[in-house]
Amino acid sequence: VNLPAFPSITPKSVFRFFTSIRLTVFCLLWLAVLTFVGTLYQVDNGIYLAQEKFFDSFFLWPFFPLPGAFLILILLFLNLCASFFVHYQAGWRMPGLMLIHLGLILLLLGGFVTRMMGLEANVSLFEGEGTNVASSVSEWEISSAEEMLAQREIRAVDFSDLRRGTRFRHEDKGPRFRVLELHRNARPLPPKELSPELRAALPMSPSGIQALQPVKNAIEPGENLPAIRLSVEGAKNAKEVILWGRDERPLALELEDGSVRFVSLRRKRFELPLFIELNDFQRTTYPGSQIPKDFRSLITAHFSNDVHRQVVIKMNEPFRVNGWTFYQQKFDVGPERELSVLQVTRNYGRLIPYWATGLTSLGLAMHFLQMQWMQLRRRRKSA
Amino acid sequence: MDAASPPEEIRMKRLSLFLLCLLSLTAFAQEPVPSRTLRAFGDLPVLHDGRVMPMDTYARLALLQFSGRSAFGKEPAISWFARLLFVPDSTRDDAFFLVNHPEVLDAMGVPRFQALPGQKKPSTRRFTYSHLVDGMGKLAELYEQAQKVEPKQRDLVAQEAVRLFENLITYRQLASVFTHERPIPGLQIPLLRERLGLPADVTAFSYSDLKDRLPAITDLVQAAAAQDDPDALTPEQREALGLASYMFGLRTALVDMPLPLLPAAPHGEPHWLAPLDALHDEERDVQLVNAAKQSGLLSTSWVAGDWQKAREAIDDIGEFSQGRMKHVREVRNARAEARFNRANYFFKAKMMYIACFFLAFAALISGNRSLRLAAWIPLSLALLFHVTGLGWRIFLTARPPVTNLYGTFLFVGLICLLLALLVEAFQKNGLGLFTGSFVAIIFLFVADRFGAEGDTMKKVVAVLASNFWLSTHVLAVTTGYAGVWIAGVFGHIWLVLKLLNKPKDLLDKVRLPMEGLLGFGLTFAFLGTMLGGVWADQSWGRFWGWDPKENGALLIVLWSAAVYHARIAGLIREIGMAAGAVIGCIMVMVAWLGVNLLNVGLHSYGFTQSMFSGFIGYIAFELLFLAVVLGLLQVQSLRKQPKAG
Fold first, then answer.
1. pTM summary value
2. How many CB atoms lie within 10 A of CB B513?
């Protein structure tokens, strides 16, 4: 029986695959489908879950694996790069096309750099308060410190790096942990009436949690409250602990040498290159209405003990310093004071999309005009 | 009131009622308001929803809110509104309350139909206040029930009950703005009259007449309050107590009224007051109180038909507002905006586009050169009106003309037309005239639909209040919409011509502009989308966030790029390209309107529930069009193939 030969995968065939314009069409169409479905998905599930499921993923799993937008964008990037070097060698007669594709390569590269190295957090300050720390909205960490209210000398492990069975420790002489159970969003199960013996065998928890129940991810990522159950080695007072995102105080673990480590599950924190102090938050509405006209934070930026200046952060006018940017995000009005929430970002690839936009737009304009010019000449000739 | 003289009280009541009826009758029978007076009244600035607008706009918005129309039949909104303010009884039997869901009427216990004088068919959608007022009690109950539910969770009937109840309350409030200037019905103060210094020959007094005599009334009331025994009150004191109680009740009932007509603060944040509130100004601002009195004079002279006095009062109020708030651009422009409203540029442009469309269609069919040239006449006028209207909007709002969906339809309609005229300039066969005028008509009609949603020059929220980004990102992306949409229209034409087996050279005259315009649209859609990313990065630190509006614009870019690449790859040919351009129209509408219907994300500034069915209908029409045309083309191509064997 002659079976059809299975196409052999050779470097040439791989290269041909990546330079194929059919691959471009597939990627563009599939990305359009994902964009459309992902947008509809946002209605019930919010923007962040849609982003995670459709746009930041390699695969979707409705019933069988389908490529996610991240995979498609990588394919498109490879396709663009390969095509750029193969198809456009003789394309100097069409400089617009060269610029378009060069710009798109740069755009995708910029997106990749942002995804890998970008940082997003926020700072919430009541009037009169100050800080040099920003907290992540959606990322969490397990921190360990020698003092209960330590602000410095804190070691932390990213929650997103942990899986069931992962072993970790914050320092050489600190306790060793192994992940037994972890949830991105969880709530404690109602406590049961237990005998003192059974209660003593329960995991130790700052909030007295006996067991955890996973909950569906919230629409807003900031509303997720993760939880983790860990086995502990090297602590005298606990063999197993439960940490939860809403614990009000850290868990004190006594080590063999008599020292104590305070461990907690908290929003990931980032040290800022300056200390910012909110002097006043101002908001105005258009007269006789509730339509917001302007809201702004008047802050003092302390760069060192004796170097400081007044800064105004308002809508569409962020404050940039040393690669960090502070944006006016939202506010809340308390009974006595107002709370201002500033979004804080650091993105080394921030300007790449700007360059990419310029290049691609210029290329599109050049190509469009060139095509129209060629068509006009052709028509004149035929006339 | 003196209970000791009932026969006289009844007589006085009857007399007052008679006077009121007489007053109303004179109001009904009064000669029409001189157009100059009406115009001057329409020019008066008034604060509403965060911006100062002319009374003319305020009147249109009020009528739109009540009836979904910006005029009451043939009567201009400002004329109707003046009746509502000054002679409210004359509007009780005007059928202007729009009811979208008859179930609300059932729940109110009010008939679903109302016979109206001069109309053959009973009205089923718009009702009079007199018709609805009997169901107000039940409507209030429905309103209270609806308030217990989150607005998004309310069903359509509950939403409609809330809307109707609020409209009825607003109507009543507007009708009461000048209540303090109307004679107090049934008021008898024969004993007090001399003491208060009221003229002996006048029998009816208003709150305003008595307001300046409040110290004297207060003295009497205080004297009455000092009496321990109520039976020992003098008849005069009894009158004073009754009068004070009425005046206090009226003042507390009419606090924070709509129609903030008079600017209270000469400096600092503008604070505008309704006439009665201004009359009671706590700051003792003499100019303000005088202006409030002038507004009272306006009301009484309007009722009396004394147009000379009314005009003088209007001028005084206008001078007061303009003088006090001359630093506010909108106050200075109030008259200009009223003039813009009256000019009705977009309606005129629409009419001219329609004329051009028919002439261009006739020219296309007949190939008559004269008809084609004739089509340029209405088109030039339409363009003039369209551009002038947009120019006025830019001047009045001091913003690019794309701050809301209404504005984007006006703008995209114009860009589509200009692109089509570019095609006409090259081809000179009427195709560009036909296509351009067709698209402009459609978009102006859709803009009308959005204009009926409310104020089209509303203030933009803080995050969108950037002229730089509005004039770069939004103008670029909407220009992209225009390019892709007009390409799609050419796609429709090409498919129909192909179906009709038209010759290739004719098909090429449609195909070439279609391909070029799709490229134009792709260029601007890409530029606009990326500029949106730059704006997002500048505003909240993220270039791309997969926001629905961003996704919508990206869809257009991806689709257009996919169509071009598929054509280059040979995956599609001319029919596929035309069908791709038609689907481009759908993509534009998804990006433009569809994502607003989702009501999520930062850009959802134009959500309108009633547009949903229209949007779905449009998508269904396009898909059906494609299915039918492509199906028939397939049948044609199968028939053309030689039969095997």
1. 0.87
2. 27
Widest CA span of chain A, in angstroms?
Answer: 100
Q: Looking at this protein, which amino acid is placed at residue B341? A: N
- Distance from the B470 Cα atom to the nearest Cα atom in chain A, whole angstroms: 12
Give the best residue of B49, B58, B464, B530 to mutate against chain A (max A CB count within 10 A).
B530
What is the Cα B5 distance to its own chain's centre? Answer: 53
Residues ≥6 apart with Cβ < 8 Å to A130: A275, A276, A277, A278, A300, A302
Residue located via tokens 């100004």 = B281
3-state secondary structure of B559: helix
DSSP-derived secondary structure for A17-42:
HHH-HHHHHHHHHHHHHHHHHHHHHH
Length of chain A equals 383
Instruction: List the single residue in B with minimal CA-CA distance to A27.
Output: B562
Q: What's the pLDDT tens digit per position in B312-353?
A: 999 999 999 999 888 889 999 999 999 999 999 999 999 999
Question: With an 8 Å Cβ cutoff, is A56 touching chain B?
Answer: no
pLDDT of residue A10: 84
ipTM here: 0.88
- With CB atoms and an 8 Å threshold, state whether A35 touches B51: no
Q: Extract the tokens encoding A376.
A: 């006009």
- Examine the pLDDT at B29 and tell me if it is beyond 70: no
The 10s digit of each residue's pLDDT in A238-295 is 899 999 999 989 999 999 888 999 999 999 999 999 999 999 999 888 888 888 888 8
Interface test with A, best of B429, B460, B543 (most A CBs within 10 A): B543
The amino acid that residue B344 corresponds to is N
- Min distance A250 CA to chain B CA atoms (Å): 33
Contacts of B514 in chain A (CB under 8 A): none
Classify burial at A305, counting beta carbons within 10 Å of its beta carbon; exposed 0-12, middle 13-18, buried 19 or more.
exposed
**Residue A153 is encoded by which pair of tokens?**
């000398």
Closest CA in chain A for residue B458: A291
Q: What is the CB neighbour count within 10 angstroms for residue A312?
A: 13
